[in-house]
Task: inverse folding
């Protein structure tokens, strides 16, 4: 992989991280008044998968969508404005953090009913298959989501019709504060997908190049008409399930576990790797950081100076 | 225009056929759609004509398949999905209510879900507790969804076409006992607007607003009342549950001052209650007496035909309520004539004499 | 008896605790039940006390888990299941409506389903279109199910205990804004019967029948109307959606002649409509003027706090409707005092000043 | 296996066959006025599985329940009366063919919403596990039902809590008139169950001894606390999906296919096998046939002379 491609991956992860950190920092100001699920620690999945997609491809996502949205090229301004509930938000304020959309960027929508968008992605893939378009559709969801029957129904139909859809399961071992072993028997998730007949892969969700490599393969096969693909990626959520803070005090995971999770930081480890391969990239990173900070500042300014929706804006567009 | 009587089921088939012919984005999917029975013949021949890339059977995965159809609708197709019984659609409530109904609103109009879901309300021949619910009120509580219940073959075709052309999720609810009823249906492609009641019979005494098959029953009552007792009533076929055409009912009630609402559902929480409430809220002064609701009792539908005989309200109950309202004499010979006119031809639990079950 | 104020959430916890203590068949299950946040602290400590064979977390499988709880209920357990948001229960409609509601009836009383499902209605802090629906009317349309919505901490505990002792499926709907409201709650095990409205405030001018959190809002309006304008109204906390205590409302309406129904749901198809309809059907002559429905508008709940401010009806709307009914003057200084008395303390989208989100 | 055990299996299959044939014959009289799904051709599954159960075990079933109900020991009189809609029916006429129950016999209920009883069975097994009883619960369902998400949700929970439940999937290759290959990708169903972590088996549903052998093993393991078991059995439905008749004229399956299906008759083949092993059993069979015919005649007489429910009987018992 070229140095510039590698830097682009790093930059994309860093950008998501910094944006979410900025959101977390400002959350306490009480102006972003909606539930928010940060993906800090899981950026490599969003970035690695989306790097394997082209603009015309479609992505659906869930409650933890900021990273997916940004990695796919969703407008930062429209996202931040949405968190602030402003008229310039991607849903005009109607959605908030849990409802993102940017059709120009191929980000088809994220919603917080767990499992809700999984069949939608299959339906989008079905449409592109019937239209014989080149489009591949990706859906991001979590290990908890895998427990929803609708996921299995979706895989069955996707395989039956050999649809160009890639299921990306982010396994962070938790559904809210409940561990996988209180919700599922011990067996690999991706094996169930395999038994449904899907091509299935598993990998380290902290390794952006590994994610990209698996995704390239899966997306390529899907595009070639080889049918649905399933990728299970392991990662770790650093902060609380919902909200801006760390949650060490809740004691549902040990300090040691959190430390280990943070130690596997996809950004830090990738930075180390790039430095090992390419020598010092300190300056490049600094430039990125500066650009990102400028972009973030502008986005918050955009949001805060945007129109506040009125009662009229909350009405209408109930029916198309 | 040439007069041509075809059944409600044939009208649906023709509506599907012409929609598919006209718009290549229309696809049809459902359990049994291409099978030999073709959903009571409403999808017969479609696969032969449009091929297996537009006409699909589907796995038994109601929630998943609804979501898949929503995804397809978001991506430019116009799916028509079919459930052989509305009861099965309860499995798909999540996708219908959380996604289909809200997508357009919550994404600020950036996308829409042009999806039609046909749902068949079972009745007769021991359909029983899990195969003969009439659930329109549950679905109609969700803003963002349209729920329609055509009664005549003419409306079935025209409203199906409008539903397919509509950019919103439209639930098209068909009562099983309507499928074999014939009506004059034009051969060409035509639309009947969604959300408007239709006057089936006119009179000054009482307004009867009826949904789906109950409009058929109300018309039987209206004709009998007229001919046996000289009592004229307005019968409105509501045709749509959401939007609910309250204005038409108000119009009629302003004339008659008395309202009966007849619904296919079980009583409490039915859309009949909603309509009565809206009329009471909006035209209280026009009402001369208390409105009346006619609906199924508040228990699940039993299976035994010995019990279904009393489960479903029919023309007799409607006529009796009308007579109560107008203060007519039920001991007269005219009343006996009225009752005779309303007698159902054939067994009460089958659509017609020739029927030998099951369905 | 010792006066003791505890919150609605604590009252639920205590009700669960005492039910589990009393009856070893009671088990509690739900996403997050044993987690550190313990469903807004309503299940705190239960696992420590009763162990992991009676207190369970569960997979994200709402329909399956509901069926599993029904199966367990049929087999002698008395499960209490929890959904953090009622919106998730839409996934379980099939099991709730097709199985739980009908099992006792369709098997001729041979078995019953003593199941409680707690469902939380979200509101505030940008819960948005998929996390703040108020779906009681959908569930309440099914005969065989009970749907209750306690408002006070006292009732939360007593009705939860009654629900757990009840041999039928009972949906126990909790409004999120009630959780932190305190009330005098006895320490001992006690029952509050299901299906009865409670008079929260008395007066002759108007009847306000309110559901769940709207009863809190109605009480604010009632007190302000009394103190600022000297207008007395009946406030009925309906407490139960099915059965619906129409008799109590009729009693009050026979006195006041005027009816307002305030609901937490979106307007069309709401249980408020059902109640208005039943009152209009049964006590038309007692009504002096048209009944009024107060509910959320007919669109999904937006997320932005700039928009939710206008989405939810509150005491002001209730008071204004009362004033319209009694023909009171809205230009007086008394009216300004009334409005001031009803001002909400703190941001409109948070339960109190201290709250910093999210929930 | 002893000769008498073998004869008991044969007799049990024959009994189900003859009862359903009698129902089919009389259906045209229009007095059994409800939908009816006959299991003619699939008797070996009901009989083989239930022979592995004890009376205290529990069975749930679906729309095609006659065989399961009878094999588990459900009252024939109460079933036939139920088909006739009489007060003496097992549901007092409220249920009809698609709703059978006989709690004394451990037949916990059958309903026609596909998939509806699958989680119920898991719940029953959960209850017995929590009560530390010996009971095993079996649920019968079809290949179509396997497409319902709730089945996967149920398997997940059953395995998670190691519940004593046996999933019996009757794969007759059809869901109504739709073949498996229009509904599911090509892959064995039982493999999906295996991927969920269940012990899974497959076998010839026309061979009653094979069914029994697999069931004994599965039920035994379930009873020993080894967790949920999954059995996929292949069989063939001879008659129309719903209703009393053959349906050759519908042409969704070839005459040849139907012929082959009928050729594999579980009763005929088992009779041949027993004759091969034990010599002529003609007389024994004749005795069975005569007993069965007497029992059937009595059951129909019972039903037809039973009280017809009144409007009062259709009310009440809405709430317990
Ligand atoms: C149908 C449904 N059930 C429950 C919830 C509540 N909920 C929100 S996020 C979440 C956890 C989901 O876990 P997972 O899919 O692993 O995603 P993660 O949060 O770990 O990214 C839950 C239970 C929901 N939103 N929707
Ligand atoms: C949820 C639901 N969807 C659809 C139906 C209609 N239906 C009744 S039986 C059946 C076929 C089921 O096939 P399978 O599970 O293989 O059982 P079989 O009939 O072959 O015994 C269908 C689709 C239903 N009853 N319930
Ligand atoms: Mg997770
Ligand atoms: Mg089958």
Result:
């Amino acid at each position: 992989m070229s140095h510039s491609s590698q830097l682009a991956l790093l930059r994309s992860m860093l950008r998501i991280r910094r944006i979410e950190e900025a959101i977390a920092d400002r959350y306490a100001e009480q102006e972003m008044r909606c539930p928010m699920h940060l993906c800090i620690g899981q950026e490599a999945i969003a970035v690695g998968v989306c790097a394997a997609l082209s603009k015309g491809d479609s992505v659906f996502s869930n409650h933890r969508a900021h990273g997916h949205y940004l990695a796919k090229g969703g407008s930062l301004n429209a996202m931040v404005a949405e968190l602030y509930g402003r008229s310039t938000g991607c849903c005009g304020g109607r959605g908030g953090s849990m409802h993102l959309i940017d059709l120009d960027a191929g980000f088809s929508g994220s919603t917080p009913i767990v499992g809700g968008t999984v069949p939608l992605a299959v339906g989008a893939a079905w449409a592109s298959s019937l239209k014989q378009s080149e489009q591949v559709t990706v859906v991001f969801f979590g290990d908890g989501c895998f427990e929803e029957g609708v996921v299995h129904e979706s895989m069955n139909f996707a395989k039956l019709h050999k649809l160009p859809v890639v299921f990306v399961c982010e396994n962070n071992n938790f559904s809210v504060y409940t561990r996988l072993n209180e919700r599922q028997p011990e067996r690999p998730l991706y094996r169930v997908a395999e038994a449904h007949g899907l091509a299935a892969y598993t990998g380290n969700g902290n390794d952006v190049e590994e994610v990209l490599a698996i995704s390239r393969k899966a997306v390529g096969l899907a595009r070639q008409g080889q049918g649905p693909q399933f990728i299970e990626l392991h990662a770790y959520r650093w902060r609380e399930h919902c909200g801006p803070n760390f949650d060490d005090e809740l004691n549902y995971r040990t300090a040691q576990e959190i430390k280990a999770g943070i130690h596997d930081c996809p950004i830090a480890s990738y930075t180390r790797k790039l430095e090992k391969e390419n020598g010092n990239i300190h300056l490049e990173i600094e430039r990125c950081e500066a650009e990102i900070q400028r972009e973030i500042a502008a986005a918050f300014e955009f949001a805060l100076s945007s129109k506040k929706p009125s009662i009229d804006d909350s009405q209408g567009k109930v029916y198309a | 225009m040439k007069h041509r009587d075809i059944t409600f089921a044939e009208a649906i088939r023709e509506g599907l056929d012409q929609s598919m012919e006209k718009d290549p984005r229309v696809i049809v999917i459902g359990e049994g759609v291409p099978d030999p029975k073709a959903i009571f013949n409403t999808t017969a021949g479609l696969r032969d004509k449009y091929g297996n890339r537009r006409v699909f059977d589907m796995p038994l995965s109601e929630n998943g398949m609804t979501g898949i159809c929503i995804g397809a609708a978001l991506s430019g197709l116009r799916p028509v999905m079919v459930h052989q019984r509305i009861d099965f659609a309860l499995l798909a409530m999540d996708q219908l209510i959380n996604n289909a109904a809200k997508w357009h609103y919550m994404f600020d109009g950036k996308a829409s879900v042009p999806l039609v879901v046909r749902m068949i309300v079972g009745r007769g021949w021991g359909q029983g507790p899990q195969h003969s619910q009439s659930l329109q009120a549950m679905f109609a509580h969700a803003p963002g969804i349209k729920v329609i219940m055509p009664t005549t073959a003419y409306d079935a075709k025209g409203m199906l076409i409008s539903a397919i052309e509509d950019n919103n999720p439209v639930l098209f609810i068909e009562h099983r006992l309507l499928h074999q009823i014939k009506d004059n249906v034009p051969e060409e492609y035509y639309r009947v607007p969604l959300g408007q009641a239709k006057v089936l019979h006119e009179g000054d005494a009482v307004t009867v607003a009826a949904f789906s098959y109950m409009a058929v029953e109300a018309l039987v009552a209206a004709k009998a009342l007229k001919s046996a007792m000289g009592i004229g009533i307005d019968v409105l076929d509501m045709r749509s549950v959401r939007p609910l055409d309250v204005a038409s009912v108000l119009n009629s009630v302003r004339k008659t001052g008395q309202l009966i609402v007849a619904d296919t559902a079980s009583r409490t929480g039915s859309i009949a209650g909603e309509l009565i409430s809206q009329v009471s809220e909006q035209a209280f002064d026009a009402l001369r007496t208390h409105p009346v609701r006619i609906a199924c009792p508040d228990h699940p539908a039993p299976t035994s035909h010995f019990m279904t005989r009393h489960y479903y309200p029919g023309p007799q109950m409607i006529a009796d309520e009308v007579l109560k309202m107008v203060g007519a004499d039920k001991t007269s010979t005219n009343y006996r004539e009225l009752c005779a006119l309303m007698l159902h031809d054939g067994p009460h639990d089958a659509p017609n004499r020739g029927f030998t079950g099951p369905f």
